[in-house]
Amino acid sequence: MRRPVYLTALPLLVAFVVAGFQVLHAQEPEPARKSSARMTVTLRIQGNNKQTPEVRRNDVIVKQGKNVLPVTGWTPARGESAGLDLFILLDDASDSSVALQFDDLRAFIKAQPASTLIGVGYMRNGTVAIAQNFTADHDLAAKSLRLPFANSGAFRGPYLAVVDLVNRWPVNGNRREIVMVTDGIDRHYDGHRRRSLSFISPDVDTASRAAQRTGTVIDTIYTRGVGRWSRNYWEITNGQNNLARLSDATGGESYFLGAHNAVSFRPYLDEISNALANQYLLEFDAVARKKPGVHYISLDTPIAGVELDSAEGVWVGSK
Questions:
Q1: I want to staple 176 with a disulfide (CB 3.0 to 4.6 A). Which of 19, 146, 216, 243 is the partner?
Q2: pLDDT of 264-316, one tens digit each?
Q3: Please, what's the b/e burial string for 208-237 (b: 16 or more CB within 10 A of its CB; e: otherwise)?
Q4: Topology of domain 83-276, per CATH?
Q5: Where exactly are the structural domains of the chain?
Q6: Are 69 and 63 in contact (CB under 8 A)?
């Protein structure tokens, strides 16, 4: 007796279905690997609003590309979490007139809370000469300010000095912030630059990545340098553009008043002090790549009149 045709074909059909499921399963992408990331965020108030609204963890939106990332921590940098390493970084290529700002700088240093460790150093030839290591003795740090050398031996880009500093920074879990006083002109690229106001030193990106890797926020203050470049409007403007780019990439602010020195640094330093008092430690689960590195992220909040400032990138993966 002959079997029905459909009974003969049934095992074949089952085999095709199973094979199809296996192919589909093989083509499914591997689940994204997650890695915890942490960064410092400065809460800034826009407009004339003098009161700082309360921003909760659920009010913070973190994106990595199109992916919205889960926020796992949003801690005010106060109390037990107030620890801060603050480094005052001056340029040895600055004009000696910067000493007129030392009273403001000393007052700024002495006004910092006891939870802040302060260091002082001078950029010279792509490195940092430490005048005072991080210390809780703010009077001692204030006394370490000295006149810049203001000579041709100091003529080298300031951005490699930033890399040198962050690579030597002690690891202690504190927030990291630099107040950088310089004209921003990268003298290292003499003869290799394009004569345009759009020139950004390649070392700016190198310094930015180093700061992002270590979670270091950099505020920059313009002051006149020495030599012919310091009198050239073209170079002054490029230097200020370099500083603005560095601060923007690391979550800080850049301060300058045209091509002239500010009469006083005090308004700048007061704003920096206010920013330091309104910082948060943000933690979130980022999407990790095969190799650790800096990932670009963006922050937003639905709260009107509030801006969340942070570095453009954060290190994801083991260091």
A1: 216
A2: 999 999 999 999 999 999 999 999 888 888 999 999 999 988 999 999 999 99
A3: bbbbbbbbbbbbbbbbbbbbebbeeeebbb
A4: Rossmann fold (3.40.50)
A5: 34-78+278-316, 83-276
A6: yes
